[in-house]
Amino acid sequence: MYLSPVRDQGGAIRFFFASQMDVTERVEAQKIISDQKHLVEQEVERRTADLRRALEAKTILLHEVDHRVKNNLTMIGSLLRLQVRTIDDPVVASRLGSMLERVDALATVHRQLYQSHDITLFDLGTFAQSLAIDVVGASGRDDIRLRIDAQPLLVDAANASALGLILNEILTNAIKHGFADGRGGCLTLSVEREDGRGMIRICDDGPGLPAAKRTRSIGTALIARLASQANAEAEWTGNNPGTCVTITFPRSETT
Ligand SMILES: Nc1ncnc2c1ncn2[C@@H]1O[C@H](COP(=O)(O)OP(=O)(O)OP(=O)(O)O)[C@@H](O)[C@H]1O
Ligand SMILES: [Mg+2]
């Protein structure tokens, strides 16, 4: 408040006008501040809407890319399928069949990626479940029971292809070696969370791992290479009877 230093008879009147001016200045200053605050709020709203639109455009673009990748992989799969039918040598046909399964698994990864709400995350738990159903279904074997204990488990979308391919190798091995020679049984898939990591275990009740593994295969080498790429670990253990393969990997969930 402004006090007039002049103390004469008119002092009270001058003091009254001085304090009136003081209040008017303050009211004006408050109006300026409130106008500026309103302007800043409007600008923040406008910028937020711009950023939201840019993010939506980027998401649509990435989904479009995943869609195209998936379509191209499906096309490669169809070409391989045509080629497999022309091959008489059962060994070559089987190798090509394995390649076909890998391409199909990658196509499934990209199909799930383009349908996903958050482009940065991939639900490996749900993927493992649908892949297990697909692999058992594609084997045409009705003597293999599938027991699934799965839950959604989010991982970084950048690791989706590597982890998806690892799961494909483990599942196809279980069908190919665990239930070889027409021997039926039970295939179990369990998805769990452990501290900051996720864990997926696939077990069969077949003959178990041989004392000496084949050396000219690419499945095991592929698992090792992809695991180091995705910061994952793969471990083979006995299932008494059969084989269990457990993979652990970083998960992207905060809960
Ligand atoms: N679930 C399993 N049960 C029994 N043996 C297995 C199992 N998984 C792997 N093996 C053994 O380990 C070997 C190596 O597996 P790997 O996946 O590297 O090769 P592959 O399946 O024979 O061929 P590829 O994967 O290259 O098509 C197999 O040949 C098989 O003998
Ligand atoms: Mg294999």
Q: How is this structure best described in words?
A:
By secondary structure, the protein is of the alpha+beta class. The chain has a domain at 120-255: Heat Shock Protein 90, CATH 3.30.565.10. The protein is built from five helices and seven strands, in the order H-H-E-H-E-E-H-E-E-H-E-E. The strands form two sheets. The protein has a five-stranded mixed beta sheet with strand order 2-4-5-7-6, covered by helices on one side. Strands 1-3 form a two-stranded antiparallel sheet. A hairpin with a 2-residue loop joins strand 4 and strand 5. Helix 4 packs antiparallel against helix 5. The chain is elongated. The site of adenosine-5'-triphosphate (ATP) has 19 residues, from helix 4 and helix 5.
Describe what is shown at a glance.
The protein has a domain at 120-255: Histidine kinase-like ATPase, C-terminal domain (Heat Shock Protein 90), CATH 3.30.565.10. 58% of the residues lie in helices and 17% in strands. It contains 5 helices and 7 strands; from the N terminus they run ααβαββαββαββ.
Approximate helicity band: 55-70%
CATH superfamily of the domain at 120-255: Histidine kinase-like ATPase, C-terminal domain
The CATH class assignment of the domain at 120-255 is Alpha Beta
CATH fold-level assignment of the domain at 120-255: Heat Shock Protein 90
Order of helices and strands: HHEHEEHEEHEE
Distance between the termini: 55 Å
* Number of DSSP-assigned strands: 7
> What global shape is seen?
elongated
Strand content: 15-25%
Q: Which CATH architecture of the domain at 120-255 would you pick?
A: 2-Layer Sandwich
Radius of gyration: 33 Å
> Order of strands in the sheet with the most strands?
2-4-5-7-6
User: If helices are DSSP runs of H or I spanning 4 or more residues, what is the number of helices?
Assistant: 5
SS content category: alpha+beta
